[in-house]
Amino acid sequence: MPPTKRSPDLFHFKNFSIRQDRCAMKVNTDGILLGAWTPLPEQQEARVLDIGCGTGLIALLLAERLPQARVVAVEIDAAAAEQAAENVLASPYADRIEVIPQAIQSYLAANRGPANLTDSAFDLIVSNPPFFSGGVLSDQANRTNARHTLKLSHSDLLGAVRDLLSPAGRFAVILPLIEGLRLIELAASYGLCLEQKLEVRPRRGKSVHRLLLCFRKANRQIAAAEDLSALDERPRQELVHYETDNRWTEEFRALVADYYQKPS
What we know:
By secondary structure, the chain is α/β, with parallel strands linked by helices. It contains ten helices and eleven strands. The strands form two sheets. It has an eight-stranded mixed sheet, sandwiched between helices. Strands 1-2-3 form a three-stranded antiparallel sheet.
């Protein structure tokens, strides 16, 4: 059952609501999947960073899953950041989430340096990043920034993760199949090795259309390739969203059920 909604601009989840009339990218399955699937750090009082938080959905889901975590949510679009902050303020997690209206590149520059990075390293970093690198651009600048890599290239994203992630931290991301495979290769050059991969299919018998990926820092650069090779030998992890009759599959329902409202 999808989240209860009164209008396209208001979604109700079990423990919080999302207003999104000022956000270019609305609540979608990608964000919900990432927020619900992301492997959590072991420590209870974790520091979490959401890069490109949009409506604030993923930051709110992670604050719900980690009751003692503190979350920093960075968003380049001023209108979206303002609305995300309002969504956070109206939630039960307002005292643990900080929304910063800033590009991650600027945030990184402000926190660069051994002292700052030691004090502000994150145990978990998540991102539902832009992934289009070509094609026709939208005439709405905020939508273009949210969907295209013009303002956040994957190299910039990985560079920020490398510098802001704690030694034992995790980085989780969702991307289309081809972009996800490219990111796995690129991540190795930033000292990040793939720890988990979940292939998502829209329906049974359909091709994989999304990859959920979780990375950790490699002790040696070559470890990235070694870990990826080992990962490819493990049983394939797969999630199917819909049955052929458009009902949610049991595995998808089990993943997201804790966050959706029950039907009245």
